[in-house]
Design goal:
The protein has 9 helices and no strands. It has helices spanning 2-10, 12-29, 37-56, 69-84, 101-105, 109-144, 158-170, 175-192, 195-215.
């Protein structure tokens, strides 16, 4: 623990990249031990993610929530775009029903609601912190300049803006919505000069999307589990 903390303290890059990479690797492991491991590994990933946030919180000053009207509007706008772009176009992978909880856990309603809660909590409270610090604080500024740690968050650079947004989009199955999402979050950071606004906006998007999924996932209207 002390050794890891020391390495993170000594490397601003490592403090912003390692938590995201670990979270990404655990994501790749979901479902590797059978269908139900998809959910248990996600839960374990959230525990690890929370620990990584706790370790890096004192080291990454910009990893702070910031509530603003711009963040509220941006988060809601991205949610609307994400749903609106749920139309046929070439996806990076085929949609699956891995998160169709009633289909896989329908015999145990308590577990269905437990894992739905875990998914919404993780995507709302952990994912925005880890992803926004990686993409907006590290990757965008790293593309702008070699001494990226001294680059202000409100500096616009066309190459960094496009590359970061595209990479962010390509990590999502719904890549077109993902690219638009990355652009909006990046513009928000440039406007406010704070990562915290993008963290809040990202959290609002994921919360609204999670609520959309669960309220459409139990036979009342067309199921929307593919958003997860």
């Amino acid at each position: 623990m002390k050794g890891l903390t020391g390495k993170l303290q000594a490397s601003p890059l490592l403090a912003r990249v390692l938590p995201f990479v670990v979270f990404l690797l655990l994501t790749a492991c979901q479902g590797s031990l059978g269908q139900e491991s998809h959910y248990w590994i996600y839960a374990a990933k959230c525990v690890v993610g929370a620990w990584l946030v706790w370790v890096t919180w004192p080291l990454v000053a910009e990893m702070r929530w910031a509530v603003s009207l711009e963040a509220l509007l941006a988060g809601t706008l991205v949610f609307a775009i994400w749903v609106a772009l749920d139309v046929p176009y070439p996806k990076l992978s085929q949609p699956d029903d891995s998160w169709n909880l009633p289909a896989h856990l329908g015999a145990d309603p308590a577990m269905v609601w437990f894992f739905a809660g875990v998914r919404i909590t993780g995507s709302t409270l952990l994912v925005p912190l880890l992803e926004e610090v990686f993409y907006r604080s590290f990757l965008y500024r790293y593309i702008v300049a070699p001494n990226w740690i001294y680059t202000p968050h409100n500096q616009f650079n066309a190459k960094a803006f496009l590359v970061t947004s595209v990479i962010f989009g390509l990590t999502h199955q719904h890549w077109l919505a993902g690219v638009a999402c990355g652009m909006i979050y990046q513009l928000l950071v440039i406007r406010t000069n704070r990562i915290g606004d993008a963290i809040t906006a990202h959290a609002i998007t994921n919360l609204l999307l999670g609520l959309w999924v669960v309220t459409h996932g139990f036979g009342f209207v067309k199921e929307q589990w593919h958003f997860w």
